[in-house]
Amino acid sequence: MKITVQLVIDAQDGSQPVVEHLAAIAREDLSPATAGLALAEAHEVLSGLQHHLVAAQAQAAIDTHRDCGGCGRPYARKDTRRIVLCSLFGTLRLESPRLKTCPCAKSPAATFSPIAALLPERTTPELLLWEAKYAALTSYGAAAALLAESFPLGRPLHATAVRRQVEHTATRLENELGEERFSFIDTCPRDLETMPRPDLPLVVALDGGYVHSSNQTSRRDGWFEAVTGRSTPTGDGAAKTFAFVQTYDHKPKRRLYELLRSQGMTDNQQIVFLTDGGEDIRDLPRYLNPQAEHYLDWFHITMRLTVLRQMTRSLPAPDADIEDFTVDPAEADRTLERIKHYLWHGNTFRALDLLTNLVDDFELLCANEPDDKRRAFLTRVTEFRGYIDRNSEQIPNYGERHRSGEAISSATAEATVNHVISRRMVKKQQMRWTPRGAHLLLQIRTRVLNNDLAADFARWYPSSDPTLSLAA
Hints:
Blueprint: E1 2-9, E2 18-26, H1 39-64, E3 77-87, E4 90-100, E5 111-112, H2 114-118, H3 125-137, H4 140-150, H5 159-176, H6 189-192, E6 202-212, E7 223-233, E8 240-245, H7 252-262, E9 271-275, H8 279-282, E10 292-296, H9 298-312, H10 329-344, H11 348-368, H12 372-390, H13 398-403, H14 411-427, H15 435-449, H16 453-460
Parallel strand pairs: 6-9, 9-10
Antiparallel strand pairs: 1-2, 3-4, 4-5, 6-7, 7-8
């Protein structure tokens, strides 16, 4: 059996339709290996179809611009050049005639090219979109290889080219971002009472992860931090993520504000921010919304307390023969359990009081009986006391919030760090990054994970035919 695939081009101008040969497919008996189209055959049909389609489109465009629109005289042709258009279904080389400008137009340019004017970019938006999608999910090299295998590109695709296109797309997104502001609260408190009833609260969990730096000069300077977050509606609605490199980004607050606005945030809607208590992340959501609440998440408190309680088990036991001042490790562990109980109920006064007593006891103990494990424990306890003291205003009654079904932990942010940063840039792809390269890739990756990138391309490259929209 032989199947011939042909293309019929009807210009719908009264002329005779043109028939073009695309491919001939031969088949024998039906088997799993012969059923349907092979990938190479599909590539041949698609690339041939696109070649004839674009050639017909280009010829129609040339015919449309053959005569001057002002005086009606035909343009004089200077020469013909060839432009290269890269697409998902082949690399097209189009004849682009250069025409002399009509004297009636009074244009400063002596010549113009209709095809070059209609195709200012030499890469189709759909190819740019799929390069960004593949690169957001896997390494640049793997993205180039997968694209070349999946589509009849008609040319080799290198990892460097994919990286450049992704960074160009991310830079375009960055240029659309508004200017940074110290405060985004513009609504008068009197107007909040007249606004419609808001949706349920948004819960925003923020955290940071570390990326291996390409500009490593020492072991300590081998990493830089990337901040990421996840905004989750309390009711129905999809969660969205965002990320940035804080040493490179100059608009972190604007970035978070635009994300919340894209989820329908209003000025009278309650927003709950959960952070790990770090000063840089803690100050990010300030002055974004008049109804915002900022809390220290319970996960980081319990994580630090767990480490302290494990350290008490390795502390040396008190010597019964020595009558000097000593501290029983079991008693220190019970004190930490009480501190955890007070923090769970939001009683930071009693928790700080117990922490201060514990620090004073171990300072006296280390002064009398120096010991490396006790000194390490003292250092950790002192650091934890400062941590609770700095964030005491952001410690709520976790027990009450938990019983009410409200968020108390940024564990979702820990998962977001792994999903957004670590999987793509740390764990599976063991490569080094510049702050700029990591930041731009994170913008593309979060847009892909949020299913927003196709809508961006549809906005940049609108089509008169809705069936051809890139966001479809």
